[in-house]
Specification:
With 234 residues, the protein is an alpha/beta fold. Helices cover 45% and strands 15% of the residues. It contains eight helices and seven strands. Helix 3 links the parallel strand 4 and strand 5.
Length: 234
């Protein structure tokens, strides 16, 4: 039976791959985006996850047009990479607001219907740097590490309502963002990855599909790395 699925930041990269994977198996998929032209084939809702009223309006619009949200993938995020000594307060707080607090706002709004129906699946998109750290990414790594505490607290809070909450932590995935890295940096990264390749967006999407399927129904509070082994031991 088709479910009502929401993927935030679903207009490109990993988010778009996840949205397409859900659509391919017959689910009704809504994506949120902030700017530009959204991809065709989805219910596209303009939404700023840093604005609670924008998030609440988006959740209400999705419920009206394709039914109350049953699956949430909190994927929207930004980066403002720079070294600590150059990082401004705004560099730090804006990344936490978009990535971590944004996920909280979306889940808070969407989970109300899940609690009433006593079912639902939530996936937060973290990163390997949440565990390993990354020089020049103190803000981003902190926001992604915070998702683990958020997810595990919500897993305990919502579990009695048959709602699962998990974290997916991708490593270096072949996207437009990683394509812009200098060749020497790409070689440095690959040298640290046991599988010796970048991940594909489908690698992440397939993991999200599993966690939100009947096959993953007894998994909650987990952090699943999709990183080719890069983060082992952390």
């Amino acid at each position: 039976m088709a479910r009502s699925v929401l993927v935030t930041g679903g207009n490109r990269g990993i988010g778009l791959a996840v949205a397409r994977a859900f659509a391919a198996q017959g689910d009704n998929v809504a994506i949120t985006y902030r700017s530009g032209e959204p991809p065709a084939g989805f219910l596209a809702v303009k939404c700023d996850v840093t604005d609670a009223s924008s998030v609440d309006a988006a959740i209400a619009e999705i419920a009206e047009k394709q039914g109350a949200v049953e699956v949430v993938v909190a994927n929207a995020g930004i980066t403002r990479d720079t070294l600590l000594m150059r990082m401004t307060d705004d560099d730090f707080t804006s990344v936490l607001d978009a990535n971590l607090t944004g996920a909280f706002r979306v889940i808070r709004a969407a989970s109300k219907a899940m609690v009433r129906s006593r079912k639902g699946s939530i996936v937060l998109m973290s990163s390997v740097v949440a565990m390993t750290g990354s020089a020049g990414q103190a803000n981003y790594a902190a926001s992604k590490a915070g998702m683990v505490g958020l997810a595990r607290s919500l897993a305990r809070e919502l579990g009695s309502r048959s709602i699962t909450v998990n974290v997916v932590a991708p490593g270096f995935i072949d996207t437009d963002m990683t394509a812009e890295l200098p060749d020497d940096r790409k070689e440095q990264i690959l040298a640290q990855v046991p599988l010796a390749r970048y991940g594909r967006t489908d690698d992440v999407a397939n993991t999200v599909l599993f966690l939100t399927s009947d096959a993953g129904a007894y998994i909650t509070g987990a952090v699943i790395p999709v990183d080719g082994g890069l983060g082992m031991g952390h």
